[in-house]
Amino acid sequence: MNAETTVSVLFEAAGITVPPDEFDYFVKVYPALRAGLDALYEVPMTKEEEPQLVFSPYL
Fold this sequence. Notes:
Blueprint: H1 3-14, H2 20-40
Helix pairs in contact: 1-2
């Protein structure tokens, strides 16, 4: 799905109508915004480590 289609679907799902110039702006910045959000979930070694089930401040 390209950026224009994705932005259109997101606005439609939220029930938001934007002017064409704002829509074009969101289409332009969406790839960088998406990459930034994806980076938040790319923490190194998270897939190799076991989850910490109990938090102890004394460890």
